[in-house]
Amino acid sequence: MAYRAISAAVLAVLLASPLAAQPAGDFYVDKQITLIVGADVGGGYDAQGRLMARFLGQFIPGHPAIVVQNMPAGGSLAAANHLYNIAARDGTVIGLMQRNVLTAKWTSPSVVKFEIDKFNWIGSLASETGVLAAWHDAPVTKAGDLLTQELIVGGTIGTDTEISGRLLNALAGTRLKIVSGYKGNADVLLAMERGEVQGIADESWSNLKTTKPDYLRNHLVTLLLQNALKKSPELPDVPLALDFARSDEDRKVMELYFGQKVVARPVMAPPGIPADRLSVLRQAFMAMAEDAAFRDAAIKAKLELNPSSNEAVDRFVTLLATTPPAIAQRFSDVTAARN
Predict the structure, then answer these.
(1) CB 3.0 to 4.6 Å from 122: which of 190, 200, 267, 338, for a disulfide?
(2) CB-hemisphere CA count at 13 Å for 242?
(3) What is the Cα–Cα distance from 36 to 56, expressed in whole angstroms?
């Protein structure tokens, strides 16, 4: 009886150990990974996601094919809800989300069906600087004008184009009139060209200069503010939005919101995937980031990428979790408000 009891105990330990599970190195053989991109086709997130899909599988044992699925609704909130509640938790589904997902519990609490600290972070494809830009014939020509004259800007629900506009109105005293309902940044820029709106409250500087170089070359836009924690070396004469904060508390709220841009292209996996597979995905992501062919392809595609590890995203998520309640409430009040 004692021998049988010991044998049963040893068997139970073996069955519960990683040795009993399919090794991560074997799991991805003949598998396909779905990369959910929480943005519309044709934008910066989509382009970066498709580039990642071309290369990431090369660094995963078994070299799985990676297929992109766009899920843009709600500024990535539909994608994040899907990844958290519906997607397979076996390492075959990952996501590239718009950074607003990180603070969505404060900006869109009624829509959020996930706990941000329960996701498994793989890394971030890029950090970035946002810019508030006005079309060349808009009445606003310098940052100070934003405090005294109305500027009509296009917005997409749940994204920086809309949320940054609300934040700047409340914390910096700008007079932005937000026209919501555009599918994405590309549509807002097109609306700006057509004269439907006069500007955009927050557009990626890297995306603007690579996809719309004629805007800059032909002086079709005026860059009024930088939405970031620090100035881009390329924009020394464009003031920081932070410098227009009307109080120390307001500045802290702005710093928290613009802090998302440090991990502007977060890549994540659902909760509960096996630890060894998560480790494989994280290692593959960083190996891809250092690969010369990947970097060359990014340059050819005019995509500015500076990938960071999962620890960088984890640090920001930890910062969110330790934000003082008063700042969190002010953040929520400001970003969820309507003009």
Answers:
(1) 267
(2) 18
(3) 14
What residue ranges define each of the domains in the chain, with the CATH number in brackets? 27-127+264-335 (3.40.190.150), 130-259 (3.40.190.10)
What's the sign of the alpha-carbon dihedral 290, 294, 296, 299? negative
> Nearest CA to 51 among 244, 296, 335?
296
pLDDT at 300 over 70: yes
81-88: long-range contacts, CB 8 A cutoff, minimum separation 24? 81/111, 81/112, 81/113, 81/114, 82/36, 83/36, 83/114, 83/119, 83/268, 83/269, 83/270, 84/113, 84/114, 84/115, 84/118, 84/119, 84/270, 84/271, 85/113, 85/114, 87/34, 87/36, 87/270, 88/270
Phi–psi pair at 37, nearest 5 degrees: -100, 115
Count of CB atoms situated within 10 Å of the CB of 162: 29
Burial label for 179, CB within 10 Å (0-12, 13-18, 19+), is middle
DSSP 3-state assignment of 101?
helix
Residues 196-239 have pLDDT tens digits of: 999 999 999 988 998 899 999 999 999 999 999 999 999 999 99
Length of the chain counted residue by residue: 339
**Three-state DSSP class for residue 31:** coil
* Least confident segment among 10-19, 119-128, 225-234: 10-19
What are 230-233's contacts with CB under 8 Å, separation 24+? 231/129, 232/129, 232/205
Block residue for tokens 């969190």:
328
Confidence class of residue 17 from pLDDT cuts 50, 70 and 90?
very low
Cα→Cα distances 217→102, 153, 161, 191, 210, Å: 34, 22, 23, 20, 11
Rounded to an integer, the average pLDDT of 159-173 is 93
Sort 324 into a burial class: Cβ within 10 Å, 0-12 / 13-18 / 19+: exposed
Note the pTM of the prediction, 2 decimals. 0.77
Rounded (10°) angle between helices 160-171 and 248-258: 170
Query: Looking at residue 240, what DSSP letter applies?
Result: B
Tokens of 216: 């800059």
Residue type at 335?
Answer: T
Task: Give the rounded distance of the alpha carbon of 290 from its chain centre.
Answer: 21
